[in-house]
Specification:
- The chain has 467 residues and is of the alpha/beta class.
- It folds into 2 domains: 240 residues, Rossmann fold (3-Layer(aba) Sandwich); 212 residues, no CATH class.
- The protein has 20 helices and 16 strands.
- A 5-stranded parallel beta sheet has the order 4-7-10-1-11. It has a 3-stranded antiparallel beta sheet with strand order 14-16-15, covered by helices on one side.
- Helix 12 crosses helix 14.
- The chain is elongated, with a radius of gyration of 30 Å.
- The N and C termini lie far apart (76 Å).
- The relative contact order is 0.09.
């Protein structure tokens, strides 16, 4: 930064030229596309759907509204757009609205440039500071977005007619940057009117002042589809001024669901406990969310966020770690019995469509069982486990399971049912006691859900036996 121009004269001598923010974004987006890179990082599952539409909008210089249900990475997309800005931007030193040194628009910046000319001091703003965000709420005012008279400045002796008495709102303070409004339909309609000039004429007007501030802004908004008809709506003139409306979506396939889950889940670190999550247990968590999005008992208009997958994964791992701590075991490996803890992380993230009170827990339990069965069927055919089923049917073998059972107690199962060793070791991948326990529970629960074994459940304990 010490080598960068510090005055307006030095800036002009360096050959730097100001460009509008949309041109800046277009240039950097074009460079990424030409290099075969995604225009934003860290957003998965949108490569063939959302991102091409967003690329078109940015290349066209359009303001954008992202439309989609909760948990579809709309805010992440918006915040990632700052990577398409130049890393550093020169402004008139002390400017509240990032005044362009070549074309200052605020009264204070114009006065400073007029007084000092080429000696006008320059500051450099990093691109991370060029994003302004506002969560639209019913109590948001025009003063919040556009600006208001600052009574402190009036008390200092300035006249009300003096432009220097203005306190700029969030929109002008994001001049030469990206301004984002989340949940736009929640913004009162009379306040939405205040954004019309920003989108079309690219200026703002504050109170009765005879001023016009030509702003340079890329405006991006997000909204949920239901908000158009329920909680609020976007007024037609405002919708008409957005150049592009991009529809987001949930992951279409399990692979993307799991990739997002692994990317966003917070790793659980417990001193003295080694945490390992088998692939089949992760698949169950991802499949649960996929099934919930197709269930008629879940309100699909509300959506089933990817946050459900992330929270369920973290809860399952936490329950396994809690068991390891209580039993003094060195390894924490989630089992099917740990899935009983998912009610707490699931109930608040889905809206159950049921006429009867108290059925929510049963509906969630059935979804969990369906997810376990779906993963089980993907991994095993009925014929492959026929010997295991026959061993249970031909003997009095009984297996006890539960989220409080020590991992060592499952070792005897492989001795009592030798046919179980091959499928279990294929899942466990090693002789780890905790891994073997997880694999045994999964195979037995899959056989029970396939109606090949009986299961008796009392509290947190389960008993498997032949039919």
């Amino acid at each position: 930064m010490t080598a960068r121009p510090a005055t307006l004269g030095q800036l002009r001598s360096s050959g730097w030229r100001s460009v509008p923010v949309k041109e800046e974004v277009r240039r950097n987006a074009a460079a990424r596309i030409a290099a075969g890179l995604p225009i934003v990082d860290g957003v998965l599952g949108y490569e063939d759907t959302v991102l091409p539409q967003l690329e078109n909008a940015l290349l066209a210089g359009h303001d954008v509204i992202l439309l989609g249900e909760r948990g579809q990475a709309k805010t992440r997309l918006i915040r990632s757009l700052t990577s398409l800005l130049d890393e550093w931007l020169p402004i008139v030193a002390g400017s509240e609205i990032n005044d362009d040194p070549d074309h200052p628009v605020s009264a204070a910046a114009r006065a400073l440039v007029g007084e000092k000319g080429d000696d006008t001091p320059i500051e450099w703003v990093h691109r991370d500071r060029r994003l302004g965000e506002k969560l639209a709420t019913p109590d948001t005012s025009i003063a919040d977005l556009i600006g208001e008279v600052d009574p402190i400045r009036v008390a200092e002796g300035r006249y009300l007619s003096d432009e220097l008495t203005l306190h700029y709102g969030l929109v002008p303070r994001t001049n030469r940057g990206i301004f984002a409004i989340n949940e736009l339909p929640d913004l009162a309609e009379r306040i939405q009117v205040g954004l019309l000039n920003v989108l079309e004429e690219r200026d703002i007007q504050v109170r009765g002042y005879k001023i016009r501030l030509p702003l340079d802004i890329l405006l991006v908004a997000s909204a949920n589809p239901e908000d158009y008809t329920n909680r609020g709506r976007i007024i037609t003139p405002l919708k008409d001024r957005f150049g592009a409306q991009v529809r987001t979506h949930y992951p279409f396939d399990l692979g993307t669901e799991l990739a997002v889950m692994h990317q966003e889940s917070v790793p659980l670190v417990v001193p003295g406990v080694d945490v390992h999550v088998p692939d089949f247990m992760s698949e169950i968590i991802g499949t649960l969310s996929q099934l919930a999005r197709a269930s008629s008992q879940i309100n699909q208009r509300s959506g089933v966020s990817v946050r459900l997958t992330i929270a369920n994964h973290e809860t399952m791992v936490a329950n396994a770690a809690r068991r390891a701590l209580r039993l003094g075991e060195p390894d924490a490996v989630p089992r099917v019995s740990d899935l009983g803890s998912l009610g707490a992380s699931t109930a608040g993230k889905v809206e159950i469509e049921s006429l009867d009170e108290g059925r929510e827990e049963g509906i969630i339990d059935r979804l969990v069982s369906s997810a376990v069965l779906a993963v089980f069927k993907r991994r095993y055919s009925p014929a492959r486990l026929a010997e295991v089923v026959a061993a249970f049917d031909d003997s009095a073998t009984v297996v006890h399971a539960g989220d409080d059972m020590p991992a060592a107690s499952f070792a005897s199962v492989l001795i009592a049912v030798p046919a179980l060793r091959a499928p279990v070791m294929e899942l466990a991948g090693s002789e780890s006691r905790a891994g073997v326990a997880s694999a045994v529970e999964f195979v037995l629960e899959g056989l029970h859900l396939s109606r090949r074994l009986n299961k008796e459940a009392v509290g947190a304990r389960s008993t498997y036996r032949g039919r």
